[in-house]
């Protein structure tokens, strides 16, 4: 079976796995005909064990205080910005330059102005597996950010969970933002492929 072979290769460090979360449309039927309320991959006997997500909110509509329908992780008309997490400052898949302080500055600039990086939805992860690390999140209206890019535990191999698909259009109309996006995509794929990156300088060198 393809997934069995893939799982063995990922655990052996021969292949990296980038999983872009399947966000089921609320009410859409699953293989058993029942409405899907979470990504089927999380319950798959092979793939689910590799992914760094342990728990998530059910993807189902519920009534809001003003009569609107609320779906966890869906932000409506106003997209939400990204927030770099501590682990993402130095991680090769998310740092934009070698120096941690300047990489954080780039991330802060990415979330400002007309061409800010943002997303209208993110998979509503509530708990990651032990040993996994959240590299960046998506802001909530209240509370800690939703985990958006998650590195799997080291014993699972090189695994990244990407919890959203859409950055909106505005970020793509700015050349600097496009360069940052391409740099992130390049670094994520290079890390998954096992490329060697220079170590990030320590924080006490002023960079």
Give an overview in words:
- This protein has 207 residues and is an alpha+beta fold.
- The protein is 23% helix and 19% strand.
- The chain contains five helices and ten strands; from the N terminus they run H-E-H-E-E-E-E-H-H-E-E-E-E-E-H.
- It has a six-stranded mixed beta sheet. It has a two-stranded antiparallel sheet with strand order 2-7. Strands 3-4 form a two-stranded antiparallel sheet.
- A hairpin with a 7-residue loop joins strand 8 and strand 9 (146-151).
Which terms would index this structure?
alpha+beta; 5 helices
Across the major sheet, the strand order is 1-10-9-8-5-6
Report the sheet-strand fraction. 15-25%
| Major β-sheet annotation | 6 strands, mixed
Order of helices and strands: HEHEEEEHHEEEEEH
Radius of gyration: 18 Å
Global shape: globular
Q: What's the end-to-end separation, in Å?
A: 48 Å
Task: Give the low-pLDDT segments.
Answer: none
Q: Count the E strands.
A: 10
- Tell me roughly what share of residues is in helical segments: 10-25%
Mean of pLDDT:
86
Structural class: alpha+beta
Number of helices: 5
């Amino acid at each position: 079976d393809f997934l069995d072979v893939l799982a063995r290769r990922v655990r052996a460090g021969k292949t990296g796995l980038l999983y872009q979360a399947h966000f089921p449309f609320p009410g859409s039927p699953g293989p058993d005909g029942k409405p899907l309320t979470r990504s089927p991959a999380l319950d798959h006997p092979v793939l689910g064990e590799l992914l760094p997500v342990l728990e998530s909110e059910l993807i189902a509509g519920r009534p809001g205080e003003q009569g609107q329908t609320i779906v966890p992780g869906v932000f409506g008309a106003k997209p939400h910005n990204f927030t770099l997490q501590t682990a993402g400052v130095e991680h090769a898949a998310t740092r934009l330059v070698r120096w941690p302080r300047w990489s954080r500055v780039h991330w802060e600039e990415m979330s400002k102005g007309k061409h800010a990086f943002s997303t209208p939805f993110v998979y509503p992860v509530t708990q990651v597996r032990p040993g996994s690390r959240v590299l960046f999140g998506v802001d909530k209206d209240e509370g800690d950010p939703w985990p958006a890019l998650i590195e799997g535990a080291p014993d699972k191999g090189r695994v990244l969970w990407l919890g959203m698909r859409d950055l909106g259009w505005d970020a793509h109309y700015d050349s600097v933002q496009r360069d940052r996006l391409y740099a992130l995509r390049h670094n994520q794929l290079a890390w998954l492929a096992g490329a060697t990156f220079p170590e990030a300088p320590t924080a006490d060198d002023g960079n």
